[in-house]
Design goal:
Porin, mainly beta, 259 residues, 13 strands
Length: 259
């Protein structure tokens, strides 16, 4: 079994491994791994000054096959302290996913005291692993070590779960904090779904993550809640933590439809 989500083939090409396959159809990828691969490309675009990603938006332009992909990136809007970068994944002559990221200049500032943030604190870290329910498919679900802190797998309603990548994104490379966040953030709609999985689909065509602090460590906590509307759409909103603090907020627009 490959020990990475993607295997580099050279010239911007990557072979997707079974660890990327998603819960709706094992032939297609979960949104987490390709989002992280796109974020890796955004981070690699050199701005000429120390930078950090402040916001990443991923648009899923169609089903992303578990297959060979081509990765392209470019600088969209250059700047001296803020810039906009873009990355795309291509398969079969068309773009299947696109990410844009705003980067801001990294600095070491001596900030004055700021008001305390009204957060509920970092969620508890369970001592044992929680396995997905029987019948849930997809290599991605088993490529992440999950620890459920609140809610229940497969039960409707809000949920809080810790996740840790069992494999690197690409071989012999430690994932960055942002890559770890993007790998887990796309699971918000899945862990907090409010409709029966066997009778409804709730697919997100996009994922937006705003960074609040530099993520550190292997573990990322996803505290998510989903709302759906009879008009056929919904929203999954999440808070993401490392072991020390809130590091990001995520949101996913949802297409809701009977199976």
């Amino acid at each position: 079994m490959p020990d990475a989500f993607y295997l580099p083939l050279g010239d911007g090409r990557y072979l997707s491994t079974e660890h990327t396959s998603g819960p709706w159809d094992v032939r297609f990828q979960h949104g987490g791994p390709p989002s992280a691969l796109l974020a890796r490309a955004l981070e690699a675009q050199s701005p000429g000054w120390p930078a950090t990603l402040a916001r990443v938006t991923v648009d899923i332009l169609g089903p992303i096959p578990v297959a060979e992909l081509e990765l392209r990136s470019r600088l969209l809007r250059p700047g001296r302290s803020v810039d906009l970068v873009e990355a795309e994944l291509w398969h079969g002559g068309r773009a299947v996913a696109r990410a844009q990221g705003w980067r801001v200049r990294a600095a070491a500032l001596e900030l004055p005291a700021t008001p305390e943030q009204h957060e509920h604190g970092v969620p508890p870290f369970p001592a044992t692993e929680t396995s997905p329910p029987q019948g849930w498919i997809g290599g991605y679900l088993h490529a992440i070590e999950w620890r459920l802190a609140a809610g229940a797998w497969g039960e409707p309603g809000p949920a809080t779960v810790w996740g840790r990548m069992r494999h690197p994104l690409v071989p012999d490379e430690e994932p960055t904090g942002i890559q770890r966040v993007l790998t887990v953030a796309d699971s918000g709609s899945g862990v907090s779904g409010v409709l029966p999985f066997d009778r409804w689909i709730f697919i997100n065509p996009e994922l937006t993550v705003h960074l609040a602090a530099p993520p550190s460590g292997e573990w990322i906590c996803l505290d998510a809640q989903t709302t759906v509307q009879p008009g056929g759409f919904g929203l999954a909103a999440s808070r993401l933590f490392d072991r020390e603090r809130l590091v990001a907020r995520g949101a996913q627009s949802l297409l809701v439809d009977p199976r």
